[in-house]
Structures are given as structure tokens and as C-alpha cells.
Amino acid sequence: MSLEWYLALSALLFTVGVIGVLIRRNAIIIFMCIELMLNAANLAFVAISRELGDPSGQVFVFFVMTVAAAEVAIGLAIIVSVFKHRETVNVDEVDSLKG
Amino acid sequence: MNAEPILFIAFGALALIGAVAVIGFKNPVYSAIALIVTFFAQAGLFILLGAHFVAAVQVIVYAGAIMVLFLFVIMLLNLGSVDVDRPKAGIAKGAAVILGIVFALEGVYIAVNASKGTAVARVKRESAVGGGSISAMQLKELNKIQATYQLTRDEIDTEYVPKVAAADKTVEDLTADEARTLIQTLQGEMGKTERIGTVLFSKFLLPFEVTSLILLAALIGVIALVKREEPKEVS
Amino acid sequence: MELPLHVLIISSLIKILIVVHVLLIGVMAMILAERKVSGWIQDRHGPNRVGPWGILQPIADGIKFFLKEDLIPDHVDKPIYVLAPAILLVPALIICAVVPFGSSITVAGYEIPLQIADINIGILYVLAITSLGVYGVVLGAWASNNKYSLLGGLRSSAQMISYELTLGLAIIGVLMLSGSLSLREIAIAQGANIWNWNFLIHLPAFLAFTTAAFAETNRLPFDLAEAEQELVAGYHTEYSSMKFAMYFMAEYMNMIVGSAVAVTLFLGGWHLFGLENLGGPFWSGVISIAIFSAKTALFLFVFIWVRWTLPRFRYDQLMNLGWKFLLPVALTSIVVTAIVWIGTQSKLLVGVCNVVAASVVVAIVASTLAMRREPEQIERQEPSFMKGSSSGRT
Q1: Does residue B123 carry a pLDDT above 60?
Q2: Which of C284, C285, C288, C306 minimizes the C-alpha distance to C296?
Q3: What is the average pLDDT across B171-188?
Q4: Which residue of C lies nearest to B66 if distances are taken between CA atoms?
Q5: In a mutagenesis test of the A interface, which of B9, B20, B22, B214 is the best target, namely the one with the most A β-carbons within 10 Å?
């Protein structure tokens, strides 16, 4: 399989993630869609890494995973504390800063 | 016997179906399961691409840790049964989907054209020359690989050259075709754990250390966020 | 040692068939052994009615499970409720694909390795698949739509994530000395003699690994997820008949597979003072399988012994043990092994330094904890999330 196929799949997965962020209002699902986008980027990294014969792409995937893990921990903690105060995870209802 | 296209289609379709299911299900628990399926399919794709170590780490980190955390929070807040998504205006949702589809088409277009006239294509052309003895370009490529993996020329001569040519040859004696096979063999090994490790702890040592700081910051941040204030009065 | 394709396929199929069936029979043997050993420990007879000395008891149990009504309560989330036991059972089965259960056997002139698949990331595969087992428990608990099940699932997910870290970190020292992630290479690197096996070189890591493995199988003293006295039956409260039997089987299968992995990593795999090389090319294979099985059985006996000896941990004790003792010990083992091995290249020194360093770490942690303990803190402290979910939102 050539590189184009992997990149196209990666683009499609990324787009699904973007659509999810746009149409869903549940903070947890929005979070999952962000993970989906990060994973699509990982796929592109690994595919290009093979094409170039350069392992840097695979190493980048580890950094992306680390950042994703840190982000999930923080994000879920924020969701939990928002839920404690507001009893909701709907991002439209958490709009106190809107003015 | 090349199974890659079949496996690519199978894993790719599974990943896409899972991804669509993530945003399709109303119930967050089902979404989480769909996301796990997508991650698995992606691990399969990584194995297809020869990145075995990345695939294993993908399953350990994403499926084994991150998604358990998601499920834990969903169960903790008991979000499984509540339907948070209130019906939104149809126009906004429709616009989002249409924009998304346009975005997807753009992405696919770029991806398909990416290998024409880009850095990727150039490397491919240059290493594809055949005939004659080893070219300067291939020697440069080999030197680069040697530097990245911290191999010595002796190691390449004794371990890898016999795989592609007569055992007594050294890198300089190879023909262009043999050199190409040699480069491909070496590049094909980059998914191996020791190769990844060498690169990670030499070329990317500083970024690696910085990520540990990110994790530390996240650790402290999470504790600060969810720590309960001790109630002052005795109840 | 490249086998022709048809030999490879046929031998792999035979190996898969044998391994899966040995596992299933092993589960039955384990159930009987558990009841017999518990009887022996508690000074009573154990099962002795079905068959001579009660050895047909597991079969009677199996028939009982089959004939019971397969109940699906109304309030459950049906698809996940049905799926969850399988999610727990399948990882337990597929881990054995990479476990080498013997050296190699020569049949009809072909030398067949006694392992289904020798993949180069073997131990990572084991860790990856192990980490999936938790979904069976968590999803089953959630789908049951029952307060006690949910509490069991929450406990289990937190416990599994915590102890998985120790499980992963404890084997890094082993990987450093073996220089490979393949389970076969690790077993070969330990050699035939007992003083070269990893459990002596990495004694603290071995103990941490074993403890974490106990926790991963959800057995006493770590069976917080199904604590009968507190949670009815925890995550499988709503399960009955064959679905419960699948949970039951998965627990025993996890024990067997966990023991097999531990034997491979720490107890020298199929080696025993060169005994595995006796006999011809065929019989040495058989002997190596026998040695491996004997070691696994020994390990399984420890599983049962511990279960019927130790009482259950309280939840905060469980978390304290995991995060404040096992994790530091595993991390110390990595640092000490790396430094001493680079410095001296001596396995003896690595072993001694590991034990010394681990004792120092445990002493430091224990004294810190003892100093911080104030009189009013002795009362039971539930972790904050347990308070949140038990306050009526379920």
C-alpha cells in the first residue's frame, strides 16, 4: 500500500474527530474526539516515517501519546470538578464566562 | 503473497466505523467502546507499517490506560444513562456535517497529492537508481542511517551486508541494487524496539526529558484540581 | 530453523489446539485443587462425594453451570452485559500465544519450537493484552446497572490501573539483563542453573511482580472488586449460569497464564539444571514441557495458599501498598539494576544491591508513613470517589 492511502485514512479519521467536536455537546465525547484527532495524526506520522525510512516519525508518536495522556488526566479532572459544581457535562451549559 | 491491501482495508474500515460510531452513539459508554475498537484497528495499521513497538505502546497507553480512565469517569459521574445532548438547531448540525465533509475531501485530496513533488517523492526517486556500483547518494543515506542508529561501519559490514551480498564484501564494494536492498533492510528495522530506543535516547533525549516534565506538571495539576478541601468544622 | 509453510501452519494449529485445551482442563484442575487445598489448609476434607476422592467435582460444577437458567435481568444494558464476560475471557486465552512452554521438539525431522508465536515484542504484547482484561470487569459492572456491581467495577478499574504500573516496571530490570523483549530469549538468557534465574537477581522486583499479578487476577487478598461481605458479589452480582462461569473460568485462566508468564520471566522458563537436555530431540521437548508445567503448578499453589491465608485489604491499604511500596520498589530496582550492571557487569552484585536498595526504600517509606500517622486519622478513610458514587446518584 502506498503512502497516499494511509494519509487519506488519517485525514478521514481526523475529520470524523472534527465533526464530533462540532456536533456533540457532551464534554466527555468531545474529549474522545480530540483523542481521535491525535490518533489520526499519529497514523500520518508513522506512515510518513516508513516512507522516508526515518524513525523520527515513530518517536514523535511517543511524544504525542505522552502529551495525550497528560491532557486526558487534566481534562478529565476538570470535567469531574465541573460536574461537582454544576451537575452537568454539557459544554453549552457551562458558560458563566460568556458575560 | 502480499496481504497488506486486504489488511489495510479491513483495519482501515474498522477504524473508520469505530470513529463514526464514537460520534454516533448517544451513550458515552458505547462511544468509549467504539473508540477502543478504533484504537485497536490503528494498532493493527501500525503493525502493517512495521512499527511493532508503537503498536504495542498504542494498545498499552490508549486502550489500557486512557480509555479505562474515561470509563472510570463516565461511571463515577454516572453519565451512562443521562442524555446530555439536547436537540440542537438542525441548521448548525447540518452545517457542521457539511463543513466536515468538505474538510474531509480537502484532506483526502492533499493526502493523495502529497507524494507528488514533495520531499517524500524526492527521496524515493533518488534511492531508486539502479545499475553500476554504489552511488554517492546511497552512501550518504547509509551514513545517515548509521549515525541515527549509532551503528559502526563494522557492524553493518559483518551483520547486514552478508544478508544482501557475498559475505566478504564491505559497504563500498556493493552494487547499486545491493545497496538499495541494504538500505531497505536497515530502514525496515526501524520499528524494532532497540532502534527506537537508540533514536529516542540520543537524538531526542532533550524532548524526552521535557515530556517527563509535562507528565509531572499534569500530575500536580490533577491533584490540585480534584483535591478536596478538608472541612473546617467537625461534623 | 525455517519451517516450510505447510509444516508451520499445521504445527501451529496443533499447538493452538493443545494449548487451549490444556488451559481449559487446567482451569478444571485448578478449581479442584483450590477446593482441596483450602480444605487441607482449614483442616477439613474438601469435596469428596463425586467420583473417587472427589476428582469429578469440577465436571459436576460444570454441568450445574450449564443446566442453570441463563438469566438476563430486565434492567441491564443487554449488549454490553452479554459481551463483558467474553471480553474478560478472550485476553486470558490469547496471552498464551507468546508464552514458551518448552524448548523445542523434533517431530518427523522438523524442529518445532514449543511456543505458538515468538514475536519480537513478546512481553509488551503480554502487558498490552493484560491491560484489556479490566474492561471485562468494568463493562460488566456498569452494564449490570446495580449499585454493588458499579462499586465493584470502580474499585477494580482503579486497582488494575495502579497495579499495572508495578507489573510493567518490575520487569524492566529483567529486560535490561536479557536484552530482549521476546519471552523465549528471556527464558534462554536465564540458563539452566538456579543461581542465574531472575528471581534471585531481581528479588524485590519478583516480589513486586507477583503481588501485582495477584492484584490483577482480582483474588484474595486483593478481591476488593467482588468482596462478598461488602458488595454481595461485586461486579458479577447480576451474572448467573454460563456467563458467571465465564467470569469464573477467566479468573482461573488469568492465574494460570500469569503464573506461566512469571515462570518464564523469573523462574528460568523450562530450564532445570540441564535436565531439559536429556533424552533425544523428541524426549527433551517433552521433559521441558514437564518442567515448565511443574514450575507453573508450584506458582499456582502459591496463588491458592495466599488466598486461603491472608485476609482482604481495606481499600486505602490497597492503594497505599500499590503506590507507596510496590511502585517505589519497582522503580528502585530499575535504577539499581541499570547502574550496577553498567558499572560491574556482575549478576551477583546486581542481586545483592537490589535487595539492599529495596529494603532501604521500604524502610524509608514505612518510617515516613509511621511518623505522619496522627491519632484521629486511624478511623476509616474512604477514597473521595467512593463517597461521590455511593451518595445516591446510582
Answers
A1: no
A2: C288
A3: 71
A4: C161
A5: B22
Q: What is the pLDDT of residues B44-58, one digit of tens each?
A: 998 888 888 888 888
> Under an 8 A CB cutoff, do A11 and B4 touch?
no
To probe the interface with B, which of A2, A7, A71, A91 has the most B CB atoms within 10 Å? A7
pLDDT in tens, C252-297: 888 898 899 888 888 888 888 777 777 777 778 888 888 888 889 9
Q: Which residue has the higher pLDDT, C284 or B135?
A: C284
Grid coordinates representing B76? 463515577
Looking at the structure, do residues B100 and B64 belong to the same domain, yes or no?
no
Query: Is the same domain home to B105 and B64?
Result: no
What is the predicted pLDDT for the residue at A38?
92
Nearest residue on chain A to B40, alpha-carbon basis: A39
B107 and B59: one domain? no
pLDDT of residue B111: 75
Domains and their CATH numbers in chain A:
3-98 (1.10.287.3510)
Task: Answer whether B16 sits within 8 Å of A12, measured CB to CB.
Answer: yes
Domain boundaries, chain C: 5-315
Residue in C130, C134, C115 with CA at minimum distance from that of residue C171: C130
What distance lies between CA C241 and its chain's CA centroid? 25
Find chain B residues with C-beta within 8 A of C77's C-beta.
Answer: 29, 80
Q: Are residues B58 and B108 in the same domain?
A: no
In chain B, residues with a C-beta closer than 8 Å to the C-beta of A15 are 100-101, 103-104, 107
Confidence class of residue B120 from pLDDT cuts 50, 70 and 90? low
pTM for the structure as a whole: 0.83
pLDDT score for C379: 53
Q: Quick one: pLDDT at residue B213?
A: 92
Instruction: Name the average pLDDT for chain C.
Output: 82
Q: What are the E-state strand segments in chain C?
A: 104-107, 110-113
Answer whether residue B15 is part of any domain.
yes
Domain shared by B126 and B104, yes or no:
yes
B164 and B208, same domain (yes or no): no
Reported confidence tier of residue B39, pLDDT bands at 50, 70, 90 = very high
Give the contacts of C130 (CB within 8 A, at least 6 positions apart). Answer: B64, C91, C95, C164, C167, C216
Q: What pLDDT sits at residue B153?
A: 72
Does residue B178 sit in the same domain as residue B201?
no
For the residues of C46-80, what is the DSSP string, one character each? -S-SSSGGGTTHHHHHHHHHHHS-----TTS-HHH
What residue numbers bound the domain in which B215 lies?
Answer: 196-226
Q: What is the distance between the alpha carbons of residues C298 and C289, in angstroms, rounded to a whole number?
A: 14
Closest CA to C252 of C44, C88, C50, C60: C88
Q: Could you tell me if B195 and A55 are in contact, meaning their C-beta atoms sit under 8 angstroms apart?
A: yes
- Please give the pLDDT value at position B234: 56
Domain annotation covers residue B234? no
pLDDT at C391: 41
- Give the residue from B75, B78, B229 with the most C CB atoms within 10 Å of its CB, the best one to mutate: B75
Q: Is residue B153 situated within a structural domain?
A: yes
* pLDDT above 70 (res B167): no
Together in a domain, B165 and B141? yes
Choose one of B35, B65, B82: the last residue of a domain. Answer: B82
Question: What does the DSSP assignment read for C92-134?
Answer: HHHHGGG---SSEEEETTEEEESSS---TTHHHHHHHHHTTHH
C125, C160, C164 member nearest B56 (Cβ): C125
Work out how many domains chain B is built from and give that number: 3
Torsion of CA B147, B153, B155, B156, to 10 degrees: 90
Question: Can you list the residues of chain C whose pLDDT is less than 70?
Answer: 1, 227, 373-394
| Closest residue to C142, CB basis, from B29, B56, B64 | B29
pLDDT(B128) > 80: no
Q: How far is B152 from chain A (nearest CA, A)?
A: 18
